[in-house]
Amino acid sequence: MNPRDPLGVAVVGTGKMGADHVRRIQDVVNGARVSAVVDVDAERAKRIASGIEGCTAYTDPAAAMAAADVDAVLIASPGPAHEAALLTAFEHDLPVLCEKPLTPDAASALRVMEAEVRLGHRRVQVGFMRRYDAEYMKLKSLLGTGQLGRPLMLHNRHRNAASPPFFTSSMLISDSVAHETDVTRWLLGHEITAVQVLRPRPSASAPDDLQDPQFVVFETDGGAIVDVEMFVNCGFGYQVQAEVVCERGTARIGDGHAMVTNMAGRWGGTIAQDFVERFADAYDRELQTWVDATRRGEVTGPSVWDGYAAAAVCEAGVRALEDGVRVEVELVERPEFYL
Ligand SMILES: NC(=O)c1ccc[n+]([C@@H]2O[C@H](COP(=O)([O-])OP(=O)(O)OC[C@H]3O[C@@H](n4cnc5c(N)ncnc54)[C@H](O)[C@@H]3O)[C@@H](O)[C@H]2O)c1
Ligand SMILES: O[C@H]1[C@H](O)[C@@H](O)[C@H](O)[C@@H](O)[C@H]1O
Question: Which residues cross the membrane (predicted)?
Answer without folding.
Answer: none
